[in-house]
């Protein structure tokens, strides 16, 4: 009956994550920004309805096309739980 919404095609930007939860999109955006990857959130959430599921509440995280590969690698690490803290440990030891 209804088609699943797809991310908008935005010149020079690529969708790397979609969710229905605002906090999930915020965490992904913060993680990518910590990796120095420019990113933005595009919310398709319909404010007329108080729902957090389905087609009325899709939220997308976009990165600049120049950072697509770096962002996809970071997202895979995020999803697999393989985030390295080596850089953080080196900074605290200095």
Query: Beta fraction of the residues?
Result: 15-25%
Count of distinct structural domains: 1
Number of strands: 3
**Ends apart, CA distance between termini:** 59 Å
* Total of DSSP H or I helical runs spanning 4+ residues: 3
Low-confidence stretches: none
Instruction: Give the % helix.
Output: 25-40%
Question: What does the radius of gyration come to?
Answer: 15 Å
Shape: globular
Instruction: State the CATH topology.
Output: Alpha-Beta Plaits
| Class of secondary structure makeup | alpha+beta
- Major beta sheet, strand line-up: 1-3-2
The topology string of helices and strands comes to EHEEHH
For the record, the CATH class is Alpha Beta
Largest sheet: 3 strands, antiparallel
CATH architecture assignment? 2-Layer Sandwich
CATH superfamily placement:
Hypothetical protein rpa1041
Q: Mean pLDDT, rounded to whole units?
A: 79
Q: What's the arrangement of secondary structure elements?
A:
Elements: E1 13-19, H1 22-34, E2 39-43, E3 59-64, H2 68-80, H3 86-93
Antiparallel strand pairs: 1-3, 2-3
């Amino acid at each position: 009956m209804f088609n699943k919404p797809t991310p908008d095609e935005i010149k020079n930007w690529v969708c790397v994550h979609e969710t229905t939860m605002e906090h999930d999109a915020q965490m992904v955006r913060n993680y990518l920004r910590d990796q120095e990857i420019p990113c933005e959130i595009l919310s398709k959430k319909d404010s007329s309805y108080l729902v957090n599921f389905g087609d009325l509440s899709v939220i997308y995280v976009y990165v600049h096309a120049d950072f697509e590969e770096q962002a996809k690698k970071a997202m895979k690490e995020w999803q697999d739980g393989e985030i390295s803290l080596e850089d953080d440990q080196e900074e605290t030891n200095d």
